[in-house]
Design a protein that fits this description.
The chain is of the alpha/beta class and 637 residues long. The chain has 5 domains: 160 residues, Rossmann fold, CATH 3.40.50; 65 residues, no CATH class; 169 residues, no CATH class; 79 residues, no CATH class; 72 residues, no CATH class. α26 runs parallel beside α27. The radius of gyration is 29 Å and the shape is globular. The N terminus is likely disordered.
Amino acid sequence: MNESTLNLVIPDPARNKSNRHILLVEPNYHNKYPPLGLMKLSSYHRMLGDSVVFFKGRYSDYFFIEKLTNCLSKIRSQGFEVEDWSQVESLVSSYLKQRRIDTCNEILGHIPNGYYHIVKHHLNYFAYQYVPTRKWDRVYVTTLFTFYWNQTIEAIEFAKKIVKSTDSLFVGGVAASLIPQLIAQATGLQVGQHIITGLLDKPGILDDNEIIIDEITPDYSVLETIDHHYPLDTGYLTYMTKGCTRTCSFCAVPKLEPIYKEKISIEEQIARIKKEHGERKDLILMDNNVLGSPRFPEIIEEIMNLGFVRGAKYIEPNRFEILTNYLVKGDNVYNERKYMDQIHDLLQTFRNRIKSSSERKRYDELLNECHLNSVNTINKETLLDSKNLINEFVEKYRNKSPKQRYIDFNQGIDCRYVNEENMALLSQLPIRPMRIAFDYLALRKPYENAIRLADKYGVRTLSNYILFNYQDKPAELWERLKINLDLNSELEASVYSFPMKFIPLYGEEATNRQYIGKHWNRKYIRAIQCILHVTKGVVTVNPDFFNRAFGSDIDEFFDLLVMPESYIMYRNHFEENGQTEKWRYQYRNLSSHELAQANEIIFTNSFSCNGTTPKTVRSVLEHYQTIYVPERIIKPS
């Protein structure tokens, strides 16, 4: 059996001196950044001598090997024979992972008739109902955006099944702080007891000790124990300030980080990360308003002293050494297995870097002698015994080409604080991109000033957040996008826009993405989503493409907002076959009364009508019911 599919194995206490077995759970949503809170909790519990496992993925994969083994044991215990058990085992493994009906039927095709129903029962039980009997001493579930509601509740319900006592289940993070009562109502957990709001910035919140968890250096080793890849896991994740000097009504920071901390030194933390986890390429600062700090010059000075200056280079550390060091310190079987899987993959990929055929032959022979060329034969003792021999190859052939280092203030910079002095300071850093929020049109003057100052001081890659669907009007979104386009044409800079749809922070409306601002409607929102789908979320700096995507003026923009979805997504196709012009002619020639009737339906983004709907309006609505799939068109019935 391929052990690389092993998912969670609680460590054997006999070979582990840790006090408690801790499980960290991140819900199965797609996010760019690793969960910093869970990484700090991992460090915290390892400081206490506990064994820690991090899980992110499909809950059907949890304890997969145990699930598969027990399922096969139940099937085999019936005593019948099949022609090829290995094929049945492979099919059962596939079914438990994917739950495909055709796979289940294929399995049953190998089973004697008299055992058909009992085997089907076992398959469905282990696929849908089985929960491992072993339990964790404590489970933590992190939360992120409130609109990941379903994934969050699913993760909490999963955790409730595998913790020894719900008294030892803790839920924290963004959503837990913003909508704790809703989470409590949905899960039966208690706010304050199980659901932790705010930061772990005081001692004694979780245990009777003086450790402040929020100040602990995060544990990056847990990221090597999951299959999920975080796209922006390239650097040191940290803060140099906390909170914000503003109290914007659309922002969660005043609730999440109510006390503004002017400066947090990261020098010792970076040194510790470098020593324990290897040097990381970038510096990702998650500060919510770093320019609001009166100690901003000191912050810049510390960043530069850490080596993040313009033109700074980075050479990847020896990942083989990092992983083997993790293996030496491994506190449980599961983590050790995952480190060995990572090492195996690394060694197989590394082979391609060895160009000399004779050297490659020596390398292959070494892996074969040490049983390291298969995940089924690799083991900790042999790997560590051969570490130095393997590392000679790794150190000789690993990638040592310098790479450019960058800093990312990933929560954005407040344009209202930008002036000559602090932009001159920022320009000394390798910022790429500089993110500046343009949340509403009234910020135009300070926003344009910030962009021009950035350009003046040589910061020319800008990625800017454009909030919409709050109190703004649709025309104001277009105006802000056009301002960026004009600035891009005027300056040497590349000013990219990232429209971000507002979703309420509190209440039921926070649990999904359905909220519609008072000046917006569902059709307008859907039209923006269609346009951004084509542009992959980025508003281009190319004027021709912008005019095509968003319209060259306000009238064209509103024409696009009301246009049928397929006509937006597949613009060329429907313009070439004349359908777009036909729709436009019919829509514009409606009487004022008919137009009001049509818009009332169109703005709901649901295009059904009844017998009282005028024929002219029904003809217009037919365009919205056309579904285009490349190579074919599905006409309304």
